[in-house]
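Priority: medium. Attachment 1 of 2:
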């Protein structure tokens, strides 16, 4: 009798949970409709901005061509025009070319945003259809009450966790793409436009003032070197080649060495275990985790010294990162939506995807110690 009562209670609680789930699905469908409306409105605005930007690009192209033709005419007949006329013609052509680069970059970003919104809208529409279909089929769930209801709930929970992790990964990827696009736009893209203009100026100087060409070429050389440094930094941030060529330990060693030189943060690096290559996915994930932890030390810890220790065992790898900084209130940081947990929440999800564990020991004024342990395939 006791077992039957328990079973009845479980069935009753399950039915109530299903009813609550039904209400939640209604809410999801309603919220999806609201989000669809918002995305549709934003998409319309972006499409209008794309159209306006294309018109501006077309108009600027015409103006830029006129300016270049005028610059050619002025340059050919410099006896007829004053030095100020030549300079004004050059400045006008340069300004229009820079403006054209900016407008085309804006058009590219707007097109990307438009495409992203169209994809989001299609996903929302699919989600809404699925939600409506799910509501209409809720009765089917009751048929599982006499069978594998418990197993079904476990599978649903696993699916939800997988979806949440996938969404977190997508968000992280989108943020990384935005960051890289912003770095390229603000750095190499602007430098390249400047290099083109400076090269054209050198050609003009070669005809009019050849004695000034040398100094311009020296300045141009410095600009190219600076651009090359920026590009190499972006490439390293995207995917350190030494990680592919030599493995995790040399990549971390070089990264920390460069970090010490760039920011002056004294980071001691220790490696224990026998050197061997790991799965490339695992190596990249571990490198990014250490990169994130070291960046957190520089941004938040106000530390003077830090230690990064890697212990490579046969069946697992342990990573320990410790600093002598100001520490923090772990519970407050992990629950603060605005701080995004210093990236620790996303890092923990990434570690969970590797079936690993992360442990954080910290307190205000006592520094921070973070340990990560990830299992490895024993080959």
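Attachment 2 of 2:
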């Amino acid at each position: 009798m006791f077992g039957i009562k328990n079973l009845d209670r479980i069935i009753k609680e399950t039915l109530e949970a299903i009813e609550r789930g039904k209400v939640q699905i209604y809410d999801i469908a309603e919220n999806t409709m609201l989000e669809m409306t918002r995305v549709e409105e934003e998409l319309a605005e972006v499409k209008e901005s794309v159209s306006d930007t294309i018109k501006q690009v077309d108009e600027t192209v015409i103006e830029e061509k006129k300016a270049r033709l005028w610059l050619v005419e002025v340059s050919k007949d410099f006896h007829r025009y004053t030095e100020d006329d030549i300079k004004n013609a050059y400045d006008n052509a340069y300004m229009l070319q820079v403006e054209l680069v900016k407008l085309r970059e804006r058009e590219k970003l707007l097109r990307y945003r438009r495409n992203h919104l169209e994809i989001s809208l299609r996903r929302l529409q699919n989600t809404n259809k699925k939600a409506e279909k799910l509501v209409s089929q809720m009765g089917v769930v009751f048929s599982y009450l006499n069978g594998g209801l418990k197993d079904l709930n476990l599978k649903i929970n696993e699916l939800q966790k997988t979806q949440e992790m996938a969404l977190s990964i997508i968000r992280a990827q989108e943020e990384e793409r935005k960051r890289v696009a912003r770095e390229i736009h603000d750095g190499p893209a602007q430098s390249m436009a400047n290099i083109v203009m400076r090269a054209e100026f050198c050609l003009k100087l070669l005809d009019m003032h050849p004695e000034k060409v040398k100094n311009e070429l020296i300045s141009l050389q410095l600009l190219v070197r600076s651009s090359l440094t920026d590009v190499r930094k972006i490439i390293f941030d995207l995917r350190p080649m030494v990680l592919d060529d030599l493995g995790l330990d040399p990549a971390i060693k070089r990264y920390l060495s460069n970090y010490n030189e760039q920011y002056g943060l004294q980071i001691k690096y220790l490696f224990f275990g026998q050197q061997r290559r790991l799965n490339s996915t695992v190596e990249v994930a571990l490198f990014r985790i250490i990169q994130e932890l070291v960046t957190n030390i520089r941004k938040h810890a106000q530390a003077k010294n830090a230690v990064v220790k890697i212990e490579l065992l046969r069946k697992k790898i342990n990573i320990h990162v410790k600093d002598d900084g100001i520490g923090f209130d772990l519970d407050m940081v992990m629950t603060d939506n605005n701080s995004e947990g210093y990236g620790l929440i996303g890092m923990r999800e990434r570690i969970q995807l590797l079936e690993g564990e992360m442990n954080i020991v910290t307190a205000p004024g006592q520094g921070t110690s973070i340990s990560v342990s990830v299992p490895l395939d024993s080959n």
